[in-house]
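Go through this chain for my students:
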Amino acid sequence: MGCMVLKKSNKRDILIFIFLIPLLLLLSLNFSAEENDKIIPYSILNKGSEGISVMYEAMEKLNYPVNLILEEIENQNYDRVQVVIISKINEGFDINSKEIKNWIGEGGKLVYLDENWRNIEVNYGKRIDGFYSGNNKRAEVISHGRGAFLMGDSELISNKTLTKDTEGAYWILEKIDQWDYKNIEFNEFYQYGIRKKRSLWQDIPRGIKLLLYQLTLLIMAIIFYKGKRFGKPVPLYEEVERTENEYIFSAASLYRQSGCWQVVLENYYKDFLIELERVFGKNQDIGQNWLELWQRENLPRTNRAKELYYFINHEMDDTKVQGRRGKKYLDKIFLIEQLKKILIRRRENRWEILKRDTRRI
């Protein structure tokens, strides 16, 4: 009967996989057939010829503090350079708007690249520098109030251009380096124009979307198979034994999260002294004479035990040691755990000997 149930289960699993395989193939063909022109131009997520992923990744490798944001420029801090890149299909950004003009005048820094930049008349600011390719002007820097902005051609930093010419990209980086900034933010809020706000999901490459769908199906399959049980649930009643001295370790964990390394070590040492009393018997002076007992019983790692004893009694309150608290105290905590394991083994061995002697009687 059990074999029949197992065979039925295997058949059901095979049917499920037969269903999943064509589903995955359908998703793959569907994503690969979508037109590439739906990918947002001049996006850091676009790895095609019209994207700017190469520029963004190169700046990351050069340790520039770059990141992607999806918020309006006028709401950003003045210590962050805003990078806005617009194509012909976008109309959601106006360099002459009152909000952008005031933001720059108050100290904002902006890199504004537009495919149609030559036809845009800026009605404020003073031109202080320009970039030329041959006799053609490709970009310029304009100061206004306490801020400034760089305006130029979007093609200067596109992936397609950077495979042939990097002069314009280097010029832009040089001008950014002349500004005081905390971060360089590629602001793609305006990539979608004025009709809708930014949606990262729509701009994720098709291959990554397919991978996410397949990963979701895989997780669902794992949950399904791992979650199956065989037979009816059987209640299991058992006592839960609490960990020895768990209150000490709980307190030590809280102190560790607060950075109080000396207090953490004191808690672990307190637990170590309790274990010593289990082996050597109750002793009010155990903290002072445990090393002597250790040597008398010829326990292993005597030198390491001396090291811990000396540290606790002579270096614990040393301000120089406290200044290096992390590594120094952590090393002693590990040492306490090693010595404690030796004591536990000694106690267990004695208990085994005692039980054998009891059986003989």
About this structure: The mean pLDDT is 78. The CA atoms of residues 141 and 150 lie 4 Å apart. The first strand starts at residue 66 and ends at 69.
